[in-house]
Amino acid sequence: MGEDPGVLRRRRRDAAEVKGAAMASAKSVGIGIVGTGWVAGAHVDHFTRIPGVEVVAVCSRQMESARRFIAGRKLAHAVAYADLKQFLKHSGLDAVVLATPHPNHPAETIAAAKAGKHVVIEKPVALDPANLKKMVAAVNAAGVKTSVCFELRWIGLFKNIKALLAQGLLGELFHGEVAYNHACGPWYQQWAWNIKKSMSVSAELTAGCHAIDALTWFMGRRVTEVQAMKCFSPKNPLKYEYPPNSTALLRFEGGATGSVHTSIECRNPYHFPIVLQGDKGSINYDKVFTLEWPGQTGWTTIPADLPDSGKVEHHPYQGQFEHFIDCVRDDARPSNDLNACAHVHEICYAIEEAAKSGRTVKVKRTPGT
Q1: Which H or E run contains 176?
Q2: Beta-bridge partner residues of 117
Q3: ∠ at Cα 344 (341, 347), nearest 5°?
Q4: Among residues 150, 178, 201, which one ends one of the domains?
Q5: How many domains would you assign to the chain?
Q6: pLDDT for the residue 2
Q7: Does residue 96 sit within a domain?
Q8: Are both 27 and 141 inside the same structural domain?
Q9: How far apart are the first and last CA of the chain?
Q10: DSSP per position, 201-267
């Protein structure tokens, strides 16, 4: 018989209390936030829940914006800045969180790395290969920790899938499909600038990179080449300057195949479907079928937190940020650091090139990764 649910709850509570006590006694970490928008607020909410972590500085282009943010979030000991260089000199600042528009990330990351600060970078980290190369070189030279915001790795569904794969229940994967369907219109806070090509470049970079990261993380190998097609809906009602819909075919090392679809103008609620196929079983979102369970006659659903919301306050940043802080304290490498997540961006660049050229495009590796 299974263990009593009350006993399980007590064990989880006790484990959480032990972890909390350990974190509270560990080295304090001072966090600085660059940006004062919707995403920055979500980041602060999660960092301030981690024992021994404090937001000590906030930087915005406008001093008044930084001051309002500090007051609104009740960050009693944080100092406001309107100059990045001065912000990076703040006493007690250990790590910088970049919650700014996409094009700003490379210069801000490089400046933070040169100042010796660890860096949390919102996706996409860079809109082109040249800037990605500079960022990788800077953080590697400085030896700082980085964490790219592919936070869905810490949601219950993703953790379950990784556990099932680790147990060998699917055997060797030979195909995978992931899609990112999220209507990003005027109701979405970054829509006004997100529709501009100069600010986002492609649907993959601004949003679909979450699906690409999921697929490559599950498949556990690099993508070698891609094919792709993109389109606008007939009337383009959301006024995107670049095609907001795309489909890409991927070839992985070893020959496995995959596909990634992105739509940021779809007419449906947030939708993140996942299909993985192996020689011993398959996963369909939160359902699994495996030959390793001899009596199984149909799909088995495994309950978990699901990626079913595009609202940043619903994203599982907590796990990501706790992992980052643990790595800073223990001098360990975050699993989602810039070197690891550069490959997702390399795939995005190749998809854009493949769609424009109509050819199969090889995925180019960033030096230093």
Answers
A1: strand 173-181
A2: none
A3: 150
A4: 150
A5: 2
A6: 41
A7: yes
A8: yes
A9: 48
A10: -SHIIIIIHHHHHHHHHHHTS-EEEEEEEEE--TT-TT--SS-SEEEEEEEETTS-EEEEEEESS-S
